[in-house]
């Protein structure tokens, strides 16, 4: 049953914390050092980069997305001991932070070597023997004296071609950009399940499954239906950018699994609504219009790590002001698990205009204000108070008001205050105060701004 209880934002112990901070490409020790800041900003969970063994000398952002061996926890971001300390501190800090791991099970690393379909490969096995103490300290499970996968464990259909991205079978069983695609054989499935169970035993609260639209239903059910993982939260990246892709990939995913997913339909709706000629009315009831995932299966976002780094997706980036307004929307609305992306300028190495755009975004004052609002009104119903092409106003229960103006000029909006408390309110973004009383309220709004009013008591 969904919690619809009403709680006041002044009582910190009563607020619900569920916002996920994607600590993209952060080293584990840095996360540990900044847990106090993260807690104080109001987050409820962390999403860490893939922890499974990858090239420790390769510092490119994508390096962790090319696993070498499920049985080892080690990357350029840190090893098993730092990860255990991170999880322990997240679980003992008050309030507790959940920890989710990004996991790659569709493919293994694309490496140039004669035995490229043997993992970890002969050279790596020799490295294990040479540095036995290091790899034993970072062993997750299993016998590191023998290999894990052989050529018999991979689909051999070749790369997915550009004109095959709407062919579900090719997307599931083909290679993406020369990354060796694992088959859903009993051996592969047993290793994937064992790896996830071992990570859960380390203390991980859940897992983001990368490239999940590339997985067969059998591969997903293998971990999603495991009794040993019943307490884990799973969400997947079902990347879609059109109605055709939603029909082919997302709709079957929603029917065939119970797993949550990135809400790409809502993201595309947000892009259209804030785009030139778009209407904010599209954001009033997106789920009812099939423009958003069900509230209990959606991980909502405004930017994720793939969009800035992939030239094919950079056209999806919002204008920075629209990005701010979109964050107000996803953290102000009812439904979904909001995710905030915070990087270390990785994309700026290629795209200089990205510099500092998402660097330490987790502690931006506007985002902290939005999270405070979100946590305070969590579970309270959302009621539209006013909507037009350029303005959207809604309330959250009786204590919160969200107002968004995408117009390029000053405006005002009047609405009925039925259902709202007659009390003092503060706009958490601008820190302005107002007293709400009577049947009507008028808000004055500057161009391309938003307000998040929370009731004082």
Summarize the structure.
The protein has 13 helices and 19 strands.
Task: Explain what you see.
By secondary structure, this protein is an alpha/beta fold. The chain has two domains: 12-380, TIM Barrel (Alpha-Beta Barrel), CATH 3.20.20.80; 386-455, Sandwich (Immunoglobulin-like). Helices cover 28% and strands 19% of the residues. It contains 13 helices and 19 strands. The protein has helices at residues 28-33, 35-40, 80-92, 122-130, 132-137, 168-173, 186-202, 217-224, 243-256, 264-274, 306-309, 320-332, 365-377; strands spanning 20-23, 45-48, 52-53, 69-75, 78-79, 98-103, 206-209, 233-236, 260-262, 298-300, 337-342, 382-387, 391-396, 400-405, 411-416, 424-427, 433-435, 440-445, 449-455. The strands form four sheets. It has an eight-stranded parallel barrel. Strand 8, helix 9 and strand 9 (260-262) form a beta-alpha-beta unit. The longest helix has 17 residues, at 186-202. The radius of gyration is 23 Å and the shape is globular. This is Alpha-amylase.
Q: What's the structural blueprint in terms of helices and strands?
A:
Elements: E1 20-23, H1 28-33, H2 35-40, E2 45-48, E3 52-53, E4 69-75, E5 78-79, H3 80-92, E6 98-103, H4 122-130, H5 132-137, H6 168-173, H7 186-202, E7 206-209, H8 217-224, E8 233-236, H9 243-256, E9 260-262, H10 264-274, E10 298-300, H11 306-309, H12 320-332, E11 337-342, H13 365-377, E12 382-387, E13 391-396, E14 400-405, E15 411-416, E16 424-427, E17 433-435, E18 440-445, E19 449-455
Parallel strand pairs: 1-2, 1-11, 2-6, 6-7, 7-8, 8-9, 9-10, 10-11
Antiparallel strand pairs: 3-4, 4-5, 12-13, 13-14, 14-19, 15-18, 16-17, 16-19
Helix pairs in contact: 12-13
């Amino acid at each position: 049953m969904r919690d619809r209880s009403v709680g006041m934002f002044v009582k910190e112990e009563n607020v619900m914390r569920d916002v996920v901070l994607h600590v993209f490409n952060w080293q584990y020790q840095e996360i540990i050092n900044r847990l106090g800041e993260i807690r104080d900003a109001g987050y409820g969970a962390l999403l860490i980069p893939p922890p499974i063994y990858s090239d420790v000398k390769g510092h490119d952002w994508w390096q962790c997305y090319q696993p070498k061996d499920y049985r080892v926890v080690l990357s350029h971001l840190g090893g098993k001991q730092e990860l255990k300390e991170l999880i322990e501190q997240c679980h003992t800090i008050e309030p507790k932070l959940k920890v989710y791991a990004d996991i790659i099970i569709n493919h293994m690393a694309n490496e140039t070597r004669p035995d490229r379909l043997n993992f970890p490969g002969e050279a790596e096995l020799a490295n294990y023997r040479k540095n036995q103490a290091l790899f034993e300290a970072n062993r997750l499970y299993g016998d590191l004296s023998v290999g894990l996968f052989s050529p018999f464990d991979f689909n051999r259909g070749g790369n997915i071609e550009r004109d095959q991205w709407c062919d579900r079978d090719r997307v599931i069983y083909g290679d993406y950009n020369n990354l060796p695609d694992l088959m859903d054989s009993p051996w592969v499935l047993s290793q994937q399940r064992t790896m996830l169970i071992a990570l859960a035993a380390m203390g991980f609260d859940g897992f983001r499954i990368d490239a999940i639209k590339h997985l067969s239903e059998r591969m997903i059910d293998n971990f999603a239906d495991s009794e040993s993982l019943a307490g884990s939260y799973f969400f997947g990246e079902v990347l879609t950018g059109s109605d055709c892709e939603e029909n082919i990939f997302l709709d079957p995913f929603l029917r065939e699994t119970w797993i949550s997913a990135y809400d790409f339909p809502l993201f595309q709706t947000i892009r259209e609504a804030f785009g030139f000629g778009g209407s904010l009315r599209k954001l009033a009831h997106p789920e009812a219009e099939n423009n958003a995932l069900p509230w209990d299966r959606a991980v909502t976002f405004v930017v994720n790590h793939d969009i800035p780094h992939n030239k094919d997706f950079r056209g999806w980036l919002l204008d920075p002001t629209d990005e701010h307004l979109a964050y107000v929307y996803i953290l102000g609305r009812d439904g979904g698990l909001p995710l905030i992306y915070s990087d270390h300028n990785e994309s700026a190495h290629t795209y200089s205009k990205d510099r500092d755009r998402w660097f330490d975004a987790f502690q931006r004052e506007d985002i902290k204000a939005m999270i405070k609002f979100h946590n305070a009104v969590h579970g309270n119903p959302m009621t539209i108070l006013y909507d037009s092409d350029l303005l959207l106003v809604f309330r959250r229960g009786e204590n919160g008001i969200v107002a968004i103006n995408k117009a390029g000029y000053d405006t005002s909006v009047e609405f009925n205050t039925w259902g709202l408390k007659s009390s003092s309110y503060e706009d958490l973004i601008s820190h302005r105060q107002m007293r709400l009383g009577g049947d009507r309220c008028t808000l004055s709004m500057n161009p391309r701004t938003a307000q998040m009013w929370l009731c004082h008591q």
